[in-house]
Specification:
mainly alpha; 5 helices
Length: 77
C-alpha cells in the first residue's frame, strides 16, 4: 500500500487507519504541531479572560497548512 503522506498529515481518520509501522515511516509535518496548548490559546492577541474563538484559530491554521504544505508560496501573491 502506498501511503498518501499529505493526507496522513491532514486526515486523522486516514492516519489512524495506517499500521503502526506505516505511521512510524511518516515524516514530520512541516507545518508543525496542529494542537495549541491552553497557554498558547490564552496568549493570543485579543483574547480576553480565556474567551478565545477557536474556530478562527483553526481557520488560520488551515490556511497556513495549505500555504506551506500544498501551495508552497504563502505570501507570494
Amino acid at each position: 500500500m502506498k501511503i498518501d503522506i499529505v493526507r496522513a498529515w491532514k486526515d486523522e481518520e486516514y492516519r489512524n487507519s495506517l499500521s503502526s509501522e506505516e505511521q512510524a515511516m511518516l515524516p514530520a509535518n512541516p507545518a508543525g504541531s496542529l494542537e495549541l496548548s491552553d497557554a498558547e490559546l490564552e496568549s493570543v492577541h485579543g483574547a480576553k479572560g480565556g474567551d478565545v474563538n477557536t474556530n478562527a484559530l483553526l481557520c488560520v491554521q488551515s490556511v497556513l497548512i495549505y500555504c506551506f504544505t500544498i501551495n508552497g508560496n504563502c505570501g507570494n501573491a
